[in-house]
Fold:
Amino acid sequence: MPRRIRYYLAGCVCAGLFALTGVCGAADMGGTVKQVCSRCHSTKRICLNLGVKSETAWKSTVAKMVEKGAQLPAGQVDATASYLSQQPPDSGAFCD
Ligand code: HEC
Structure:
């Protein structure tokens, strides 16, 4: 099977799972954000702001971090901001 079609199918399965449970996208997003955002500073900086910053505030923070060099995939600023604004304070992903 050509590789491109396999990616396409994987994308469909992921999108389907995401629609059903929200697990696929969220798990993915958490891993990426944690990895990208812990390169320069501890995730404690993020932890301290969970439940504090609004989605709009996160958007400007994430955009600022990208300006500093955070390597988020292109076009992921909004999705990242929305993900962060939905994390509960003390989220294990950023506060351990
Ligand atoms: C290229 C290095 C770098 C990366 C990667 C990075 N940051 Fe930062 N971050 C900084 C620096 C430097 C500061 C302190 C200076 C400042 O506050 O502007 C900071 C400060 C912060 C602060 C506290 C200040 C504020 O504006 O609330 C938060 C929250 C934050 N970063 C979140 C993130 C998130 C979320 C990501 C991933 C999208 C990220 N950072 C990735 C360099 C980085």
In short: Residues 17-23 have pLDDT under 50 and may be disordered. The longest helix spans residues 3-21. Residues 36-37, 39-41, 45-46, 49, 61-62, 65, 68-70, 72, 80 surround heme C (CB under 6 Å).
